[in-house]
Amino acid sequence: MDRIRLVGGNSLNGEIPISGAKNAALPLMIASLLTDEPLVLENVPRLADVKQLERILENHGVDIAVHGRRRGADQMDGQRMTFHAGEIVDTTAPYELVSTMRASFWVIGPLLARMGEARVSLPGGCAIGTRPVDLFLFALEQMGAEIEIDGGYVVARAPAGGLRGARITFPKVTVGATHTALMAATLARGTTIIENAAREPEIGNVARCLVAMGAKISGIDTSTLTIEGVDRLHGATHEVLPDRIETGTYAMAAAMAGGDVLLRNARPEHLQAALDALSQAGVHIGVEERGIRIARNGNGLLPVDVETQPFPGFPTDLQAQFMALMTMADGTSRIRETIFENRYMHVAELARFGADIKVEGQVATVTGKPTLKGAQVMATDLRASVSLVIAGLAARGETIVNRIYHLDRGFERLEDKLSRCGAEIERVAG
Ligand SMILES: CC(=O)N[C@H]1[C@@H](OP(=O)(O)OP(=O)(O)OC[C@H]2O[C@@H](n3ccc(=O)[nH]c3=O)[C@H](O)[C@@H]2O)O[C@H](CO)[C@@H](O)[C@@H]1O
Ligand SMILES: C=C(OP(=O)(O)O)C(=O)O
């Protein structure tokens, strides 16, 4: 199994290109199931999760082609890919394919809307909580679907004539169920109103793609989405937006190691809460035409309290990275995780560096220390894994991060991007 080896102490200086967002690319790929015409996606990141979803879509009959990299003036290097679901040959998404990745469950919406039936294994994904699917089922039932659980599969059937438009009021904000209801509603009969919809930028990115495919959606980027169902959608070309979680991760890496880094193509409006927290910690944030500049030269880090919230709040997907940063702050910070009940798996691993963190319920209290020491640590989930890399960048001596297949799910060329900015980091095969 591959490992990451790094030696801490170097500052980071230079530019890091931000890749296309995993959490937008995955639902965009799934949207290709809604039409029998090709959907062309640009700036698709090369990630293990993208590969896994390709397998799932191919099983449904989607033809997938990669047209290479686009290296334009803005130096994006994502892939341009075509997804062509000319004919859906299978409406089952099997356990072997779905169990490793949460987002793969989301095929249920398009399959049900286009084919009138879907049989999808209950999902897997990062082990950060129980992660139920009740709100997906609630939304689809509101649209007239009949649903049963059979042998670990969700079996869903649309009523005669197809899904019906409905008013769907989510009792809590959920990204995945919003994506699913939105996609299903594009082909439903009549009007669907989704209330308390998630407002994460990835949902806006998907909604704009659906509009380019012929969907009628208003209220994009707000918590009320109104969708007028249409008979069919057509092909389109659409670009995956830059990854705000990757952006925040490298911002915290630069803040931790010190130095001056331009995060190219990053969009500040997509992570304002995280940038505010960094700024309060004493990190310089500069918004430039080409991206976001993060600098910390010489000054220490101040402790900052954060609480994770749905967008536009502080993202749960940056909680572990921010905690790593706070382990070296000059004082005590409190981090409250409100989205997932078990997203503190990194705490025990950060302790191996000498970090002082105590968890009580939802709250982690982090008492900063002037130095961390390199250690042998184990990646437990995607964002937890990268928090260990961040700690290792500033720790004295050598750090080995084991089980990095988690990292490969969501970070493209991580060690390459960091080493180009001066980090001593390499992937060790075996
Ligand atoms: C691929 C992708 O985009 N994953 C992101 C997505 O995950 P995901 O879509 O799984 O997260 P949700 O927004 O759905 O989850 C939010 C909360 O709602 C709960 N819930 C969700 C659905 C449901 O049917 N019932 C229910 O109770 C969840 O357990 C959680 O407590 O949003 C999360 C929250 O920003 C991010 O951490 C993940 O990176
Ligand atoms: C939790 C994440 O992914 P998933 O929802 O696919 O488990 C993530 O991207 O941080």
From TrEMBL:
<keyword id="KW-0133">Cell shape</keyword>
<dbReference type="GO" id="GO:0009252">
    <property type="term" value="P:peptidoglycan biosynthetic process"/>
</dbReference>
<feature type="domain" description="Enolpyruvate transferase">
    <location>
        <begin position="8"/>
        <end position="418"/>
    </location>
</feature>
<keyword id="KW-0961">Cell wall biogenesis/degradation</keyword>
<dbReference type="GO" id="GO:0008360">
    <property type="term" value="P:regulation of cell shape"/>
</dbReference>
<dbReference type="GO" id="GO:0008760">
    <property type="term" value="F:UDP-N-acetylglucosamine 1-carboxyvinyltransferase activity"/>
</dbReference>
<keyword id="KW-0808">Transferase</keyword>
<feature type="binding site">
    <location>
        <position position="339"/>
    </location>
    <ligand>
        <name>UDP-N-acetyl-alpha-D-glucosamine</name>
    </ligand>
</feature>
<dbReference type="Pfam" id="PF00275">
    <property type="entry name" value="EPSP_synthase"/>
</dbReference>
<keyword id="KW-0963">Cytoplasm</keyword>
<keyword id="KW-0670">Pyruvate</keyword>
<feature type="binding site">
    <location>
        <position position="317"/>
    </location>
    <ligand>
        <name>UDP-N-acetyl-alpha-D-glucosamine</name>
    </ligand>
</feature>
<dbReference type="GO" id="GO:0005737">
    <property type="term" value="C:cytoplasm"/>
</dbReference>
<dbReference type="GO" id="GO:0071555">
    <property type="term" value="P:cell wall organization"/>
</dbReference>
<feature type="binding site">
    <location>
        <begin position="22"/>
        <end position="23"/>
    </location>
    <ligand>
        <name>phosphoenolpyruvate</name>
    </ligand>
</feature>
<keyword id="KW-0131">Cell cycle</keyword>
<dbReference type="InterPro" id="IPR050068">
    <property type="entry name" value="MurA_subfamily"/>
</dbReference>
<dbReference type="GO" id="GO:0019277">
    <property type="term" value="P:UDP-N-acetylgalactosamine biosynthetic process"/>
</dbReference>
<dbReference type="InterPro" id="IPR001986">
    <property type="entry name" value="Enolpyruvate_Tfrase_dom"/>
</dbReference>
<feature type="modified residue" description="2-(S-cysteinyl)pyruvic acid O-phosphothioketal">
    <location>
        <position position="126"/>
    </location>
</feature>
<dbReference type="InterPro" id="IPR013792">
    <property type="entry name" value="RNA3'P_cycl/enolpyr_Trfase_a/b"/>
</dbReference>
<keyword id="KW-0573">Peptidoglycan synthesis</keyword>
<comment type="similarity">
    <text>Belongs to the EPSP synthase family. MurA subfamily.</text>
</comment>
<feature type="binding site">
    <location>
        <begin position="131"/>
        <end position="135"/>
    </location>
    <ligand>
        <name>UDP-N-acetyl-alpha-D-glucosamine</name>
    </ligand>
</feature>
<keyword id="KW-0132">Cell division</keyword>
<dbReference type="GO" id="GO:0051301">
    <property type="term" value="P:cell division"/>
</dbReference>
<dbReference type="InterPro" id="IPR005750">
    <property type="entry name" value="UDP_GlcNAc_COvinyl_MurA"/>
</dbReference>
<comment type="function">
    <text>Cell wall formation. Adds enolpyruvyl to UDP-N-acetylglucosamine.</text>
</comment>
<feature type="binding site">
    <location>
        <position position="102"/>
    </location>
    <ligand>
        <name>UDP-N-acetyl-alpha-D-glucosamine</name>
    </ligand>
</feature>
<feature type="active site" description="Proton donor">
    <location>
        <position position="126"/>
    </location>
</feature>
<protein>
    <recommendedName>
        <fullName>UDP-N-acetylglucosamine 1-carboxyvinyltransferase</fullName>
        <ecNumber>2.5.1.7</ecNumber>
    </recommendedName>
</protein>
<dbReference type="InterPro" id="IPR036968">
    <property type="entry name" value="Enolpyruvate_Tfrase_sf"/>
</dbReference>
<comment type="pathway">
    <text>Cell wall biogenesis; peptidoglycan biosynthesis.</text>
</comment>
